[in-house]
């Protein structure tokens, strides 16, 4: 599990839901790393309060912190 230390670039956020109102993805949210991308960034899934994935995006390592 990782904690976001910065807001991700909104241009690269992909949501799993087709709902009209998508939650804002911001600093402090918890997620999990899926893979290391070829460009050296991490593919991160951000989770809601129930532990369900709501969105994913690329994020540099320096903007992630281990969360337990």
Describe, in plain words, how this protein is organized in 3D.
With 68 residues, the chain is mainly β. It has strands at residues 2-4, 14-15, 30-36, 42-47, 53-59, 64-66. It has one domain: SH3 type barrels, CATH 2.30.30. Strands 2-5-4-3-1-6 form a six-stranded antiparallel beta sheet, with no helix packed on it. The chain starts with a strand and ends with a strand.
Layout of strands and helices, then pairs:
Blueprint: E1 2-4, E2 14-15, E3 30-36, E4 42-47, E5 53-59, E6 64-66
Antiparallel strand pairs: 1-3, 1-6, 2-5, 3-4, 4-5
Concise synopsis of the structure shown:
With 68 residues, the protein is mainly β. Helices cover 0% and strands 41% of the residues.
CATH class: Mainly Beta
Radius of gyration: 11 Å
**Strand fraction band?**
35-45%
- Give me the number of helical elements: 0
Q: Can you tell me the number of structural domains?
A: 1
The ordered H/E elements are EEEEEE
Distance between the termini: 6 Å
Task: Name the CATH architecture.
Answer: Roll
Average of pLDDT: 92
- Structural class by helix and strand composition: mainly beta
Strand order of the largest sheet: 2-5-4-3-1-6
Determine the fraction of residues in helical runs and give it as a percent range: under 10%
Number of beta-strand segments:
6
Oligomer: single chain
Shape: globular
Largest sheet: 6 strands, antiparallel
**Which regions have little confidence, pLDDT < 50, spanning 5+ residues?**
none
CATH topology category name: SH3 type barrels
